[in-house]
Design brief:
405 residues, alpha+beta, Outer membrane lipoprotein wza fold like, wza like fold, six-stranded mixed β-sheet, 17 strands, 29% helix, elongated
Amino acid sequence: MALKSSVCAIGPVLAAFGLVTGCAELPTAGPSGRAVATSASASLTLPSNDVSLQYALVSLTPAVLANFNVSGYTSLLGSFDRGHGPAPEIVVGVGDTVQVTVFESSAGGLFIPADAGSRPGNFVTLPNQTVDRTGVISVPYAGQIQAAGRSTRRIEAEIETKLANRAIEPQVIVTRLDQRASEAAVLGEVNNANKFAVNPAGDRITDLISRAGGLKYPDYESYVTLQRRGRSVRVFFKTLVDNPAENIFAAPGDTIVIDREQRSFTAFGANGVVGQFNFDRAKLTLGEAVAQAGGPLDARADPSQVFLFRYEDRRALERGGINLAKFPSSQMSIPTIFQANFRDPSSFFLSKSFNLRDKDMLYTSNASSYELLKFLTVISAITNTASGTARDTIDVQNSVVNGSY
């Protein structure tokens, strides 16, 4: 009878393990991954020993802050050569309206008659002219003068040369009255989108944004796109403020577009809160992001395994001494994981200086002890169920033998 009871006790234990391994017998919110894979008519999957995406792993150290703690590598200064030099020369262009004034040293010349008598000055102002589509203006006795693409000083010199044999020591002043060809447009999320004449003394990008009424939204949510000569470069607005060298001179024909984008990061893993979080300031550090996500859970997280996922500029990784030989030389954006050990006081404090970027992903790993605890919890549930079933079986058998069943 004891043997029979033992056999009957083993059966329910095996049955209990069978229930665990049979996924259909456990509560579930949907089909399991195995069911999805086995039910597919066709599939393209990665072998378990292959890596689908190569990435670089970088530990958070003081050297890392020097090489990677920037808002990004898109640069106006590096993208447009003119940004390195002085303000661009503003030349006359098609559509500009100019005024030509001719002076003579005495009366009796070409433009000042001898009987003019006393007058405020020996000069004559010609009617205003708009530079036509061929780029020229007309000056009496000087003929057609090429104006488009030339400075006012060069236009004056040509007119003086052509009038030298006709007028008495002529001197000419050319004044630009309406500056159409040297305008720059400011569009998008500003308070007064419009076209503005570029100041010959030089207008910086932020100068034109100011003339357009300034930003509609906070600076930490605003981006600037500069379109020039068929090229377009987009930078974070705060880049122009934090690095004055990036605030380059505007040039005639530029289009400056301001757009709003709420920067955000996502947090996963053993954090107090999992989800997407918006930046509420210009700079958000790793330490602040971890705190915003509720911090590592005491009973679940491994504080030494806090990871930040982003695509990093290849040049920064190379300066940091990372070997990128496994990545194609043409690949400038490298998948990178930064690791912070919050058990280490130095790494903990470094996290207060490491800046997040838009679309960064934060992940805190589970502690090994927590994974073991989950395993033991499952085993405990299985053994408790199995032993309870075996005990019930033995009780039933005893009842049958004793005639009480």
